[in-house]
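Progress note, sequence design subtask.
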């Protein structure tokens, strides 16, 4: 059960982060300028929500690091994932449900040279939406679930990987006399190989 919860949290974070990174490069909105009906301007996710790509890259890093961190950092990473999910979810939901002019402001300014939200609102004739904002909103829900699952179960996850346990075992003093290899290993770890010997 502990291993399943850990694996589920990590996989869900990686899926949510990868979805967000991919979504940032895809067209979210298409905006038509009034009086110009020849073509519409595509608005990628990175322009509609400018923090999308960096935050989703951070989520990928959290998911990758979650498999090796200790108990305290599990809580920190779980809380960070939840906060990122709430921030991105709020910003994405505004686009999904209201399609604000502010989301297309950067692209319209670049195409027309006109700045200012009020001026751009007068230029915009129509804004249509693709499926990517809804997909990203779903990814935010998945990320929030992963964060909550990490916070709820992280204390019961295994303490470390096999290599960590092997290193801990290697630090335990061996019973009985030490051979030459054991002595060299002890010296490499800064231990006194004669500390356990009885005086004659």
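Output:
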């Amino acid at each position: 059960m502990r291993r399943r919860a850990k694996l589920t949290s990590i996989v869900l974070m990686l899926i949510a982060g990868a979805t967000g990174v991919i979504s940032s490069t895809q067209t979210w909105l298409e905006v038509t300028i009034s009086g110009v009906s020849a073509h519409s301007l595509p608005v990628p996710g990175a322009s509609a929500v400018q923090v999308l790509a960096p935050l989703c890259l951070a989520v990928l890093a959290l998911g990758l690091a979650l498999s090796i961190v200790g108990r305290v950092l599990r809580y920190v990473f779980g809380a960070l994932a939840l906060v990122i999910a709430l921030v991105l979810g709020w910003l994405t939901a505004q686009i999904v449900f209201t399609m604000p002019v502010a989301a297309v402001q950067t692209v319209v300014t670049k195409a027309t040279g006109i700045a200012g939200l009020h001026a751009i609102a007068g230029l915009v004739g129509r804004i249509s939406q693709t499926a990517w904002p809804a997909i990203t909103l779903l990814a935010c829900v998945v990320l929030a679930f992963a964060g909550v699952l990490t916070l709820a179960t992280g204390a019961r996850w295994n303490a470390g990987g096999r290599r960590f346990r092997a290193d801990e075992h290697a630090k335990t003093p061996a019973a009985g006399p030490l051979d030459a290899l054991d002595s060299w290993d002890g010296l490499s770890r800064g231990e006194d190989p004669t500390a356990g010997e009885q005086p004659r």
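The two ends are 53 Å apart (CA to CA). Work on this subtask will continue into the next period as scheduled.
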